[in-house]
């Protein structure tokens, strides 16, 4: 696992953690909302390509109005006044 500082948000440092498996696949996640910033997949020749729609920097995510890369929980967009979750 690799850890890299990518910027700041409201005075706190934001890090990017990258995990890699034996096949060469890499997944990078930001500590800014758990955003998946990249999934690098090897092709037949072993060349890696990012298969995630993403920004090049933290500033892109901070100004994003579409929640690109966000991990959405099971109750996202549930009615505010709902008192019972199914």
The fraction of residues assigned to DSSP E strands is 35-45%
Strand arrangement across the biggest beta sheet: 1-2-3-4-5
Give helix % range. under 10%
* Sheet of most strands: 5 strands, antiparallel
Strand and helix order: EEEEEH
Stretches where pLDDT is under 50 for at least 5 consecutive residues are 81-86
Q: Using DSSP, what is the number of strands?
A: 5
* Spatial extent as radius of gyration: 16 Å
- Mass-distribution shape: globular
Question: What is the secondary structure topology, with strand pairs?
Answer:
Elements: E1 2-9, E2 12-20, E3 26-30, E4 36-42, E5 48-50, H1 58-62
Antiparallel strand pairs: 1-2, 2-3, 3-4, 4-5
Give a nutshell description of this structure:
The chain is mainly beta and 86 residues long. Helices cover 6% and strands 37% of the residues.
Walk me through what this model shows.
6% of the residues lie in helices and 37% in strands. Strand 3 and strand 4 form a beta hairpin. The termini are far apart. The protein is globular and about 40 Å long. The protein contains 1 helix and 5 strands; from the N terminus they run E-E-E-E-E-H. Strands 1-2-3-4-5 form a 5-stranded antiparallel beta sheet. The protein has 86 residues and is mostly beta strands.
């Amino acid at each position: 696992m690799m850890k890299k500082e990518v910027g700041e948000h409201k005075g706190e440092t934001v890090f990017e953690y990258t995990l890699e498996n034996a096949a060469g696949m890499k997944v990078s996640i930001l500590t800014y909302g758990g955003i998946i910033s990249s999934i690098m997949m090897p092709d037949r020749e072993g060349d890696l390509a990012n298969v995630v729609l993403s920004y090049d920097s933290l500033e892109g995510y901070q100004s994003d109005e579409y929640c690109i890369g966000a991990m959405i929980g099971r109750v996202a967009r549930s009615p505010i006044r709902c008192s019972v979750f199914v």
